[in-house]
Specification:
The chain is of the alpha/beta class. The protein has seven helices and nine strands; from the N terminus they run E-H-E-E-E-H-E-E-H-E-H-E-H-H-E-H. The longest helix is centred in the C-terminal third of the chain and has 16 residues, at 154-169.
Length: 197
């Protein structure tokens, strides 16, 4: 289900699904929502970002991320192969351009999970993209989720909390806000938004 098969006509631009961007503060549950979508709604194509971050336990190359070295990431940037890229908490993250455009051309709904900086860059390069902000039920809940991970050093958590305050303040830049009280509810609402052309 990649590009349009030979002999068929591409989906007309006005009938194509828009790229849907899911963003929000660190620790709000974006990855959890995306993992749920991957399992329950395989018809939605989830863009896999490239990152220089080391894999967390259970993460696999090509599934959660394409884990690349700094040199390889530099090449992707230099060759214009990323739709957007940003640095966050000392690591770089970027969205491979070609795969996203192929899926949209073929009429498949595409979901992209990225940070605030990346969402702004997508808005610049693809103004028709739909930006969805995932908000925590409360600030206290966000702090609990960030500190409860147990995968990061205290200074990294502190940086993430500082960044989260800035990210929460950017909510008004988005087309829609979904509050993450339940992964299933968010996934259902997200799917409904993606089916609206």
């Amino acid at each position: 289900m990649a590009a349009t098969p030979r002999g068929t006509t591409p989906v007309p631009p006005d009938a194509r699904p828009r790229l849907t961007v899911l963003s929000g503060p660190s620790g709000v549950g974006k990855s959890t929502v995306v993992a749920h979508m991957r399992k329950v709604h395989p018809e939605v194509w989830l863009s896999v970002s490239a990152t220089t971050r080391k894999p967390r336990p259970g993460e696999r190359h090509g599934v959660q991320y394409f884990f690349v070295g700094d040199e390889e990431f530099d090449k992707l940037v230099a060759n214009g192969e990323l739709l957007e890229w940003a640095e966050f908490a000392g690591n770089r993250y970027g969205t491979p351009r070609a795969a996203v455009l192929e899926r949209l051309e073929a009429g498949e709904p595409v979901l992209l999970e990225i940070d605030l900086q990346g969402a702004r860059l997508v808005r610049e390069s693809m103004p028709e993209a739909q930006l969805v902000f995932l908000a925590p039920p409360s600030w206290d809940e966000l702090v609990r989720r960030l500190t409860g991970r147990g995968t990061e050093a205290p200074d990294v958590i502190e940086r993430r909390l500082t960044a989260a305050k800035v990210e929460l303040a950017a909510e008004a830049e988005f087309d829609t806000t979904l509050v993450n009280t339940s992964v299933e509810d968010v996934a259902r609402e997200l799917l409904a938004l993606m089916r609206v052309v």
